[in-house]
Amino acid sequence: MSDLKVDGWTVEKLHDHHAQALRESRVLYDSETEHQRLRVFENGTFGRVLTLDDVVQTTEGDNFIYHEMLTHVPILAHGAAKRVCIIGGGDGGMAREVLKHASVEHVTMVEIDAGVVEFSKEYLPKLSQGAFDDARLNLVIADGAQFIRETEGGFDVIIVDSTDPVGPGEVLFTDTFYGHAKRALSEGGILVTQNGVPFLQGEELTNTMRAFKALFSDATCYLATVPTYAGGPMAFGWGTDSAARDVALSELQQRFDNSALAPEYYTPEVHKAAFALPGYVAKLMP
Ligand code: SAM
Protein backbone atom coordinates (compact mmCIF):
# COMPACT_ATOMS: atom_id res chain seq x y z
CA MET A 1 0.00 0.00 0.00
CA SER A 2 2.81 2.41 0.78
CA ASP A 3 3.81 2.51 -2.93
CA LEU A 4 0.27 3.25 -4.22
CA LYS A 5 0.59 6.32 -6.45
CA VAL A 6 -1.63 7.65 -9.22
CA ASP A 7 -0.46 10.61 -11.31
CA GLY A 8 -2.64 13.67 -10.85
CA TRP A 9 -4.38 12.26 -7.78
CA THR A 10 -3.75 12.54 -4.04
CA VAL A 11 -3.96 9.07 -2.54
CA GLU A 12 -4.76 9.05 1.18
CA LYS A 13 -3.45 5.87 2.82
CA LEU A 14 -4.65 6.37 6.36
CA HIS A 15 -5.54 2.69 6.85
CA ASP A 16 -3.75 -0.59 6.13
CA HIS A 17 -6.41 -1.99 3.77
CA HIS A 18 -8.26 1.05 2.50
CA ALA A 19 -7.33 4.18 0.57
CA GLN A 20 -9.15 7.05 -1.08
CA ALA A 21 -8.04 9.17 -4.01
CA LEU A 22 -8.95 12.75 -4.90
CA ARG A 23 -8.13 14.19 -8.31
CA GLU A 24 -5.91 17.26 -8.20
CA SER A 25 -6.92 19.70 -10.92
CA ARG A 26 -4.31 22.20 -9.64
CA VAL A 27 -1.77 22.04 -6.80
CA LEU A 28 -1.66 25.43 -5.07
CA TYR A 29 0.86 24.70 -2.37
CA ASP A 30 3.11 21.80 -1.38
CA SER A 31 5.72 22.20 1.35
CA GLU A 32 7.05 20.91 4.66
CA THR A 33 6.20 23.02 7.72
CA GLU A 34 8.10 22.60 10.98
CA HIS A 35 5.63 19.85 11.97
CA GLN A 36 4.13 18.22 8.85
CA ARG A 37 3.79 18.18 5.04
CA LEU A 38 1.15 20.69 4.01
CA ARG A 39 -0.58 20.64 0.64
CA VAL A 40 -3.47 22.58 -0.83
CA PHE A 41 -4.92 21.50 -4.16
CA GLU A 42 -8.12 21.98 -6.13
CA ASN A 43 -10.63 19.21 -6.81
CA GLY A 44 -13.60 19.43 -9.17
CA THR A 45 -16.12 18.24 -6.58
CA PHE A 46 -14.77 19.45 -3.26
CA GLY A 47 -13.06 22.71 -4.24
CA ARG A 48 -9.83 23.45 -2.38
CA VAL A 49 -8.55 20.57 -0.26
CA LEU A 50 -6.07 20.79 2.64
CA THR A 51 -3.96 17.72 3.42
CA LEU A 52 -1.40 17.26 6.19
CA ASP A 53 1.03 14.39 5.73
CA ASP A 54 -1.22 13.33 2.80
CA VAL A 55 -4.28 12.92 5.02
CA VAL A 56 -7.34 15.02 4.10
CA GLN A 57 -8.03 17.59 6.82
CA THR A 58 -10.76 19.67 5.29
CA THR A 59 -12.27 20.73 2.00
CA GLU A 60 -14.17 23.81 0.90
CA GLY A 61 -17.00 21.55 -0.25
CA ASP A 62 -17.90 19.42 2.76
CA ASN A 63 -16.27 21.10 5.79
CA PHE A 64 -19.61 22.57 6.88
CA ILE A 65 -20.83 19.19 8.12
CA TYR A 66 -17.84 18.57 10.38
CA HIS A 67 -17.56 22.14 11.67
CA GLU A 68 -21.27 22.65 12.32
CA MET A 69 -21.59 19.36 14.19
CA LEU A 70 -18.54 19.92 16.41
CA THR A 71 -19.72 23.43 17.38
CA HIS A 72 -23.50 23.81 17.33
CA VAL A 73 -24.16 20.49 19.09
CA PRO A 74 -22.17 21.24 22.28
CA ILE A 75 -22.83 25.01 22.28
CA LEU A 76 -26.61 24.74 21.84
CA ALA A 77 -26.80 21.77 24.23
CA HIS A 78 -24.94 23.83 26.84
CA GLY A 79 -27.27 26.77 26.32
CA ALA A 80 -25.08 29.53 27.79
CA ALA A 81 -21.51 28.93 26.57
CA LYS A 82 -19.36 32.03 26.96
CA ARG A 83 -15.83 30.67 26.95
CA VAL A 84 -14.85 28.15 24.27
CA CYS A 85 -11.48 26.48 23.63
CA ILE A 86 -10.55 24.95 20.27
CA ILE A 87 -7.55 22.61 20.24
CA GLY A 88 -6.09 22.40 16.71
CA GLY A 89 -8.44 23.90 14.14
CA GLY A 90 -5.71 25.74 12.21
CA ASP A 91 -7.81 26.12 9.05
CA GLY A 92 -10.18 28.43 10.95
CA GLY A 93 -13.41 26.60 10.07
CA MET A 94 -14.15 25.68 13.69
CA ALA A 95 -13.56 29.25 14.90
CA ARG A 96 -15.86 30.48 12.11
CA GLU A 97 -18.77 28.40 13.43
CA VAL A 98 -18.10 29.01 17.16
CA LEU A 99 -18.04 32.78 16.61
CA LYS A 100 -21.52 32.68 15.03
CA HIS A 101 -22.88 32.21 18.56
CA ALA A 102 -23.69 35.55 20.15
CA SER A 103 -23.41 34.01 23.64
CA VAL A 104 -19.70 33.27 23.05
CA GLU A 105 -17.58 36.05 24.50
CA HIS A 106 -14.13 34.53 24.21
CA VAL A 107 -12.52 31.80 22.08
CA THR A 108 -9.05 30.44 22.75
CA MET A 109 -7.71 28.49 19.80
CA VAL A 110 -4.55 26.47 20.38
CA GLU A 111 -2.91 25.31 17.16
CA ILE A 112 0.54 23.70 17.13
CA ASP A 113 1.44 24.69 13.59
CA ALA A 114 1.52 28.39 12.65
CA GLY A 115 2.08 27.25 9.05
CA VAL A 116 -1.42 25.77 8.86
CA VAL A 117 -2.96 29.04 10.03
CA GLU A 118 -0.94 31.19 7.65
CA PHE A 119 -1.52 29.02 4.59
CA SER A 120 -5.20 28.56 5.37
CA LYS A 121 -5.63 32.34 5.56
CA GLU A 122 -4.02 32.68 2.17
CA TYR A 123 -5.25 29.61 0.30
CA LEU A 124 -8.46 28.68 2.13
CA PRO A 125 -10.10 32.00 3.08
CA LYS A 126 -13.53 30.39 2.60
CA LEU A 127 -12.78 28.24 5.67
CA SER A 128 -12.19 30.96 8.24
CA GLN A 129 -14.31 33.69 6.60
CA GLY A 130 -12.62 36.38 8.69
CA ALA A 131 -12.70 34.47 11.99
CA PHE A 132 -9.02 35.19 12.62
CA ASP A 133 -9.83 38.93 12.70
CA ASP A 134 -12.62 38.58 15.28
CA ALA A 135 -11.71 40.42 18.49
CA ARG A 136 -13.15 37.54 20.56
CA LEU A 137 -10.54 35.09 19.19
CA ASN A 138 -7.24 34.56 20.97
CA LEU A 139 -4.93 32.43 18.78
CA VAL A 140 -2.19 30.59 20.69
CA ILE A 141 0.52 28.75 18.74
CA ALA A 142 1.41 25.87 21.04
CA ASP A 143 0.94 22.17 21.67
CA GLY A 144 -2.67 21.78 22.78
CA ALA A 145 -1.79 19.10 25.34
CA GLN A 146 0.76 21.30 27.03
CA PHE A 147 -1.57 24.31 26.94
CA ILE A 148 -4.47 22.44 28.48
CA ARG A 149 -2.20 21.04 31.21
CA GLU A 150 -1.08 24.53 32.19
CA THR A 151 -4.22 26.61 31.66
CA GLU A 152 -6.49 27.82 34.44
CA GLY A 153 -9.34 26.72 32.21
CA GLY A 154 -12.89 27.66 32.99
CA PHE A 155 -14.05 26.72 29.49
CA ASP A 156 -17.74 26.00 28.94
CA VAL A 157 -16.95 23.98 25.81
CA ILE A 158 -13.66 22.44 24.65
CA ILE A 159 -13.54 21.28 21.02
CA VAL A 160 -10.68 19.04 19.93
CA ASP A 161 -10.29 19.57 16.17
CA SER A 162 -7.15 17.52 15.77
CA THR A 163 -5.41 15.45 13.17
CA ASP A 164 -5.59 11.68 13.59
CA PRO A 165 -3.59 10.01 16.38
CA VAL A 166 -0.32 9.97 14.46
CA GLY A 167 2.34 12.68 14.49
CA PRO A 168 1.64 15.83 16.51
CA GLY A 169 -2.01 14.86 17.08
CA GLU A 170 -1.18 11.63 18.94
CA VAL A 171 -0.89 13.34 22.31
CA LEU A 172 -4.47 14.63 21.97
CA PHE A 173 -5.81 11.06 22.19
CA THR A 174 -4.22 10.17 25.54
CA ASP A 175 -5.94 9.61 28.90
CA THR A 176 -3.64 12.26 30.39
CA PHE A 177 -4.83 14.90 27.93
CA TYR A 178 -8.49 14.01 28.48
CA GLY A 179 -7.98 14.28 32.25
CA HIS A 180 -6.45 17.74 31.93
CA ALA A 181 -9.22 18.78 29.54
CA LYS A 182 -11.85 17.76 32.07
CA ARG A 183 -10.11 19.87 34.72
CA ALA A 184 -10.11 22.83 32.30
CA LEU A 185 -13.91 22.72 31.92
CA SER A 186 -16.20 24.97 33.93
CA GLU A 187 -19.04 23.38 35.92
CA GLY A 188 -21.42 21.82 33.40
CA GLY A 189 -18.80 22.13 30.67
CA ILE A 190 -18.69 19.83 27.63
CA LEU A 191 -15.70 18.22 25.89
CA VAL A 192 -16.12 17.15 22.25
CA THR A 193 -13.47 15.47 20.11
CA GLN A 194 -12.97 14.32 16.53
CA ASN A 195 -12.70 10.56 16.83
CA GLY A 196 -12.31 9.29 13.30
CA VAL A 197 -14.50 6.90 11.34
CA PRO A 198 -15.52 4.01 13.61
CA PHE A 199 -15.80 1.46 10.78
CA LEU A 200 -12.10 1.89 10.05
CA GLN A 201 -10.79 3.40 13.30
CA GLY A 202 -12.81 1.50 15.90
CA GLU A 203 -9.96 1.10 18.35
CA GLU A 204 -9.46 4.87 18.44
CA LEU A 205 -13.09 5.36 19.47
CA THR A 206 -12.99 2.57 22.05
CA ASN A 207 -9.88 4.02 23.68
CA THR A 208 -11.35 7.51 23.89
CA MET A 209 -14.66 6.22 25.23
CA ARG A 210 -12.89 4.15 27.90
CA ALA A 211 -11.10 7.28 29.09
CA PHE A 212 -14.29 9.40 28.93
CA LYS A 213 -16.29 6.84 30.92
CA ALA A 214 -13.72 7.02 33.71
CA LEU A 215 -13.92 10.82 33.74
CA PHE A 216 -17.50 11.89 32.96
CA SER A 217 -20.96 10.91 34.15
CA ASP A 218 -22.17 11.26 30.55
CA ALA A 219 -19.71 9.77 28.08
CA THR A 220 -20.73 8.76 24.58
CA CYS A 221 -20.27 9.74 20.95
CA TYR A 222 -22.42 11.15 18.18
CA LEU A 223 -22.18 10.77 14.42
CA ALA A 224 -22.21 12.63 11.12
CA THR A 225 -21.22 11.55 7.65
CA VAL A 226 -18.57 13.70 5.99
CA PRO A 227 -17.85 12.53 2.41
CA THR A 228 -14.07 13.08 2.45
CA TYR A 229 -13.62 11.27 5.79
CA ALA A 230 -14.15 7.99 3.98
CA GLY A 231 -15.54 4.79 5.45
CA GLY A 232 -18.96 5.75 6.84
CA PRO A 233 -20.07 8.13 9.57
CA MET A 234 -17.51 9.93 11.67
CA ALA A 235 -17.64 9.80 15.48
CA PHE A 236 -17.39 12.79 17.79
CA GLY A 237 -16.57 12.08 21.43
CA TRP A 238 -18.90 13.69 24.00
CA GLY A 239 -17.98 14.00 27.68
CA THR A 240 -19.72 16.04 30.38
CA ASP A 241 -20.93 15.83 33.94
CA SER A 242 -24.08 17.76 33.00
CA ALA A 243 -27.40 16.59 31.58
CA ALA A 244 -26.92 18.71 28.45
CA ARG A 245 -27.47 15.73 26.15
CA ASP A 246 -31.01 15.33 27.51
CA VAL A 247 -32.14 18.83 26.53
CA ALA A 248 -35.65 18.54 25.12
CA LEU A 249 -36.07 18.98 21.37
CA SER A 250 -38.51 21.87 21.96
CA GLU A 251 -35.94 23.70 24.12
CA LEU A 252 -33.20 23.03 21.57
CA GLN A 253 -35.45 24.36 18.82
CA GLN A 254 -36.07 27.52 20.84
CA ARG A 255 -32.33 28.08 21.41
CA PHE A 256 -31.73 27.51 17.69
CA ASP A 257 -34.54 29.90 16.67
CA ASN A 258 -33.12 32.54 19.02
CA SER A 259 -29.67 32.23 17.45
CA ALA A 260 -28.66 33.86 14.18
CA LEU A 261 -27.52 30.52 12.80
CA ALA A 262 -28.37 29.48 9.23
CA PRO A 263 -26.55 26.15 8.97
CA GLU A 264 -26.41 23.85 5.97
CA TYR A 265 -26.32 20.59 7.94
CA TYR A 266 -27.23 21.17 11.59
CA THR A 267 -30.86 21.15 12.67
CA PRO A 268 -32.16 20.45 16.18
CA GLU A 269 -33.62 17.14 14.89
CA VAL A 270 -30.27 16.13 13.40
CA HIS A 271 -28.65 17.10 16.72
CA LYS A 272 -30.87 14.73 18.70
CA ALA A 273 -30.68 11.93 16.11
CA ALA A 274 -26.87 12.10 15.91
CA PHE A 275 -26.65 10.42 19.34
CA ALA A 276 -28.50 7.31 18.08
CA LEU A 277 -25.73 4.76 17.57
CA PRO A 278 -25.91 1.88 15.06
CA GLY A 279 -25.18 -1.55 16.52
CA TYR A 280 -21.60 -1.79 15.23
CA VAL A 281 -20.74 1.57 16.82
CA ALA A 282 -22.50 0.75 20.09
CA LYS A 283 -20.39 -2.42 20.27
CA LEU A 284 -17.25 -0.31 20.23
CA MET A 285 -18.33 1.46 23.42
CA PRO A 286 -16.54 -0.09 26.43
N1 SAM B 1 -10.85 17.98 10.51
C1 SAM B 1 -9.62 17.32 10.43
C2 SAM B 1 -9.73 15.82 10.58
O1 SAM B 1 -10.73 15.32 11.04
O2 SAM B 1 -8.79 15.16 10.20
C3 SAM B 1 -8.60 17.94 11.28
C4 SAM B 1 -8.53 19.42 11.07
S1 SAM B 1 -6.94 20.15 11.09
C5 SAM B 1 -7.44 21.78 11.33
C6 SAM B 1 -6.27 19.62 12.62
C7 SAM B 1 -5.23 20.56 13.19
O3 SAM B 1 -4.75 20.02 14.41
C8 SAM B 1 -4.01 20.79 12.30
O4 SAM B 1 -3.95 22.14 11.94
C9 SAM B 1 -2.82 20.38 13.18
O5 SAM B 1 -1.67 21.19 13.00
C10 SAM B 1 -3.43 20.53 14.57
N2 SAM B 1 -2.74 19.77 15.63
C11 SAM B 1 -2.24 18.52 15.56
N3 SAM B 1 -1.67 18.18 16.73
C12 SAM B 1 -1.84 19.23 17.57
C13 SAM B 1 -1.47 19.49 18.91
N4 SAM B 1 -0.81 18.58 19.63
N5 SAM B 1 -1.82 20.68 19.47
C14 SAM B 1 -2.49 21.61 18.73
N6 SAM B 1 -2.84 21.44 17.45
C15 SAM B 1 -2.53 20.26 16.87
From TrEMBL:
GO terms for molecular function: spermidine synthase activity. One of its GO terms (cellular component) is cytosol. It is an enzyme of class 2 (transferase). Signal peptide: none annotated. InterPro entries: PABS, SAM-dependent_MTases_sf, Spermi_synthase, Spermidine_synt_N, Spermidine_synt_N_sf. Pfam families: Spermine_synt_N, Spermine_synth. The active site is at 161 (proton acceptor). Keywords: Polyamine biosynthesis, Spermidine biosynthesis, Transferase. Residues 7-241 form the PABS domain. S-methyl-5'-thioadenosine binds at residues 36, 111, 143-144, 168. Belongs to the spermidine/spermine synthase family. PANTHER family: SPERMIDINE SYNTHASE (PTHR11558:SF11), SPERMIDINE/SPERMINE SYNTHASE (PTHR11558). Homodimer or homotetramer. This is Polyamine aminopropyltransferase. It comes from Allosediminivita pacifica.
